[in-house]
Amino acid sequence: MMARARVLVVDDSATMRGLITAVLNSDPDVSVIGQAGDAMEARAAIKQLNPDVVTLDIEMPNMNGLEFLEKIMRLRPMPVIMVSTMTHRGAEATLAALEIGAFDCVGKPMPGDARPFGDLAEKVKAAARSQRRVAGPAAIAAKPATDFRVGRKIVAIGSSTGGVEALISVLQKFPQNCPPTVITQHMPPTFTKSFAERLNRLCAPIVQEATDGARLEIGRIYLAPGGDRHLQVVTPSAPSCRLIESGPVNGHRPSVDVLFDSVAELAGRNAVGVILTGMGRDGASGLLKMRSAGARTIGQNEKTCVVYGMPRVAHELGAVEHQLPLGSIGEEILKLTAARKEGSE
What angle do CA 91, 93, 99 make, to 5 degrees? Predict the structure, then answer.
């Protein structure tokens, strides 16, 4: 039996600290061992208590959460879950935190929320089990391929916890004329627009939030919007995005399985499916459908995953054709989607 996850709660609001503590302590496998109201208190508490996981408010007095996170990752790496307001400004800060090395993020509850911090305990337990994040030298942006000749395949990617860094790593390898690419990343509603904008600044292709009816085009990457709809790819004669309103699948909306199922049906062998780091099993059965339909499939390996959940289940089901370290996935996608020398696929 695994020991209880020991948590330090850091937030400048006593009310918020109390709410987070109550939610976490209601789970028998989690124990809040301390609270701190600012970075100075948190630093002392980390030294004294040595928690397994820290929950950290992004906006705090004296030293904000991003500055403090950077110090944690540089001096004493440990799993940190960021707690953020569900605003555009909060989304930008959270994305920066995830790039620095935060394990995951949760949104502060809105008025009327039936289950405030409903998934926080599960994220804390996953964080406590995760590989420690060690801050290394700043990553050098990968140079996209310059001699790529695109074929006729569609790329579908699914990711969750750890996916921000993973997607940046993969997509920065893509050239301006990359194959049409659709992505479902588990993320709160207000965050996906900011993430698409950030990817668009960092990558050679055009990256945008998917809109209903958008035609899939070479050189464009479509990110499923967070919220109350799933992303599918439809219309074989002119592949395009469809956003459908329906209940969560595997606890998620948008769901990776919904995307992969649609690509398996639409594109068959003319597709490449990729499953990256993430908790749970979303995407595993959909990737198996893609592989059974003739698609090439890739899974991120355990060593490079923040959480080896979704890729592990996919691998165990036989859905993964190639299991690769994160740094090799971008090149492999391009190899599998390039036009053949004797003519396009």
Answer: 105
What local confidence, expressed as pLDDT, does residue 345 receive? 45
Residue ranges in 186-243 assigned as alpha helix (H): 189-202
β-bridge pairing 154-159 and 53-57: unpaired
Q: How confident is the model over 106-130, as a mean pLDDT?
A: 90
CATH code, residues 154-337: 3.40.50.180
Give the list of residues 6+ apart from residue 22 with CB closer than 8 angstroms, or none: none
Residue-wise pLDDT tens digits, 166-175: 999 999 999 9
Residue 282 among the catalytic residues: yes
160, 194, 240, 262: the active-site residue? 160
The domain segmentation of the chain, as residue ranges, is 5-129, 154-337
Catalytic residue among 130, 159, 186, 255: 186
Which is the catalytic residue, given 52, 240, 282, 285?
Answer: 282
Residue 230 and residue 194 in contact, taking contact as beta carbons nearer than 8 Å: no
The hierarchical CATH code for the domain 5-129 is: 3.40.50.2300
3-state secondary structure of 307: coil
206-209 and 322-324: which strand pairing? unpaired
- Measure the CA–CA gap between 38 and 42, rounded to whole angstroms: 6
Q: What is the CA radius of gyration of the chain?
A: 20
Task: Give me the pLDDT at residue 307, please.
Answer: 94
How far apart CA 154 and CA 216 sit, in angstroms, is 9
Mean pLDDT of the chain: 92
Question: What length does the chain have?
Answer: 345
Among residues 178, 156, 150, 179, the alpha carbon closest in space to that of 295 is found at 156
How do beta strands 240-245 and 229-234 pair? antiparallel
> Fold identical between 5-129 and 154-337?
yes
Told to judge if 57 belongs to the known catalytic residues of this protein, a careful annotator would answer no
Q: pLDDT category, 29, cuts 50, 70, 90?
A: very high
For residue range 295-332, list pLDDT tens digits in order: 999 999 999 999 999 999 999 999 999 999 999 999 99
Give the pLDDT mean for 235-252: 95
Place of tokens 């948590």: 7
User: Tell me: the pLDDT tens digits for 197-231?
Assistant: 999 999 999 999 999 999 999 999 999 999 889 99
